[in-house]
Design goal:
- The protein has 418 residues and is of the alpha+beta class.
- The protein contains 9 helices and 6 strands; from the N terminus they run βαβααββββαααααα.
- Keywords: Membrane, Transmembrane, Transmembrane helix.
C-alpha cells in the first residue's frame, strides 16, 4: 500500500487482517465528503495485489487477497454492483472502460472509475482507479502478475507526487509508461532474434553483425526455423498489444476531460487548461513512442518474412546439393553392380559348361574336345547376353505403356452433354 498523504502508510506490506482494517479506516475519508472543500489537495491511496484473478487456481499466480478484502477493494473502487464486479474480475479480454457512479438522486455524478486489463504479453496489469468528482480524492487498486511491475509504478508515483495532487489520473500515465517500457524490452528481444538469424545465415551488413560472444548458438536448420517461427508469433501479437496501449492512453484523456466536464456542470472549479493539457501532452508522447514501435515492428515483420523465405531456399539448396551427392554415389554403385552383372554373365556359362564337362558325359578326343568346349562357351555366353538384352527391351516397353494407362485410369469420367 502507498498513501501520498500519510507517511506511516507509505509502501507498507499488509496482511489480510491489516488490509481490512486500513480499508475500514481509510475508505470513508476517500469517498465524497460534503464538508470537504473542492479546493483541498486530493487524497491518494494505492493498493497493489499480486496475482491473476482469472487464473487463481494456478500455483504462483493466485490473487493474494481474500474474498472479503477483494470485495472491499472493489467497493472503494466504485464497483458497488455485483454485475460490474463479475465483468471486471472474470474478464480475460484486454479492455479499458469507465464506470460513473451517481448519487441517490440518480442525476448527480459522484465518482468516475477507470477499469483496465492489459494484454497477457504485458504481464497482466489489472486495475481500477476511482476519482471523486468533487474532491478528486483517488483510490486505486492494481493487480499485477509480477511484484516488479507494482514496485515500478509506485516508485513513479512517489517521484511525481506533485502531479498526482494536480490530477490523480496521472497514475494511468505512469502505468502507460510502465507498459511502454515492458513492450520496448519485448521488442528488443524480437529484434535481437532476427539479427541473430541474419548473422547466422550471413544476410546482414557487417556493421550490424553480432560477434560470437553476443550470438546465441543456432547449430542447425531446425533450431533456426524454430527461432524464426517463435519470433513471427511474437511480432504477430505485437500490433494488438500496441493498439491496446494507444486505446488505453486515449481512455485516460477522455476520463480526465469527462471529470472536468462534470466538475464544471456541478459548479466546481475545473483544472486549469495548462494542467489538463500537461497530462494530454505526456500521453501523446507515449503515443508517439507507440507509433514508432509499431512502425519498427512492421519493418521487422517484413524482414522476418523475407528471412523465412530465404532460409527455406537456403535449406532447399543445401538439401539439393546433398541429393546430388547421393545420386552420384548411387550412380557409382549402380555402375559397380552393372560391372559385377556383366562379369557374372561372362563367367557363368563357362563355369556351367566346365562343371558339365567334368562329368564325362562328352567323350571327345584330344584337340577336338577343347574346340567343342570353347565353341559351346562362346555360344552359350552370346545366348545369355542376347536374352538379357531382349528382357531389358521388353521391360522398358512395358514400363512405357503402363504409366500412360495409369494416368488414363486416374482421369475423371467425362460428363454427359447438358
Amino acid at each position: 500500500m502507498w498513501n501520498s498523504h500519510n507517511p506511516h502508510l507509505d509502501d507498507l506490506v499488509l496482511t489480510h487482517e491489516e488490509l481490512e482494517k486500513v480499508l475500514s479506516d481509510q475508505g470513508p475519508s476517500l469517498e465524497n465528503d460534503s464538508n470537504e472543500s473542492p479546493e483541498t489537495p486530493p487524497k491518494f491511496l494505492l493498493i497493489s495485489v499480486f496475482g491473476e484473478p482469472e487464473s487463481g487456481k494456478e500455483a504462483g499466480n493466485k490473487l493474494l487477497a481474500r474474498t472479503k478484502s477483494l470485495n472491499k477493494l472493489l467497493h472503494l473502487a466504485g464497483l458497488r454492483d455485483q454485475r460490474h464486479v463479475s465483468r471486471f474480475i472474470d474478464n480475460k479480454i484486454p479492455c479499458t472502460y469507465t464506470h460513473v457512479e451517481y448519487k441517490a438522486d440518480g442525476e448527480t455524478p459522484a465518482s468516475l472509475t477507470v477499469l483496465f486489463l492489459c494484454p497477457k504479453r504485458s504481464n497482466n496489469i489489472l486495475g481500477a482507479v476511482r476519482v471523486d468528482i468533487k474532491t478528486r480524492n483517488c483510490f486505486a487498486f492494481i493487480s499485477s502478475r509480477f511484484e516488479g511491475d507494482s514496485q515500478d509504478i509506485i516508485s513513479r508515483c512517489r517521484r511525481n507526487v506533485d502531479l498526482l495532487q494536480i490530477n490523480p489520473l496521472y497514475l494511468l500515465m505512469f502505468i502507460y509508461e510502465n507498459r511502454i517500457q515492458r513492450w520496448t524490452d519485448w521488442f528488443e528481444e524480437s529484434w535481437r532474434s532476427i539479427i541473430e538469424a541474419e548473422t547466422v545465415t550471413d544476410m546482414i551488413l557487417p556493421q550490424w553483425r553480432l560477434t560470437k560472444k553476443q550470438l546465441d548458438t543456432i547449430s542447425d536448420s531446425d533450431k533456426l526455423l524454430t527461432q524464426l517461427h517463435k519470433t513471427h508469433i511474437e511480432l504477430s501479437n505485437s500490433h494488438g498489444v500496441i493498439s491496446f496501449g494507444q486505446a488505453f492512453g486515449d481512455s485516460c484523456i477522455k476520463a480526465a476531460i469527462q471529470i472536468e466536464d462534470y466538475r464544471k456542470s456541478l459548479g466546481y472549479t475545473p483544472l486549469p487548461t495548462r494542467d489538463l493539457n500537461g497530462l494530454e501532452e505526456d500521453i501523446n508522447m507515449m503515443h508517439s513512442q507507440s507509433e514508432s514501435m509499431k512502425s519498427r515492428m512492421t519493418a521487422l515483420s517484413s524482414r522476418l518474412s523475407g528471412m523465412i523465405n530465404v532460409s527455406f531456399n537456403l535449406i532447399a539448396k543445401r538439401d539439393s546439393k546433398v541429393n546430388v551427392a547421393i545420386a552420384r554415389l548411387q550412380a557409382r554403385e549402380s555402375r559397380t553392380v552393372k560391372g559385377i552383372s556383366i562379369l557374372t554373365f561372362s563367367l557363368l556359362p563357362a563355369t556351367f559348361l566346365a562343371t558339365l564337362w567334368t562329368t564325362n558325359l562328352f567323350q571327345l578326343e584330344g584337340y577336338k574336345n577343347w574346340l567343342v568346349f570353347i565353341g559351346s562357351v562362346l555360344g552359350l555366353t552370346l545366348f545369355v547376353f542376347a536374352c538379357s538384352y531382349v528382357y531389358g527391351r521388353v521391360a522398358r516397353k512395358l514400363e512405357e505403356t503402363r504409366w500412360p494407362d495409369a494416368s488414363i485410369m486416374d482421369t475423371l469420367t467425362s460428363l454427359p452433354p447438358a
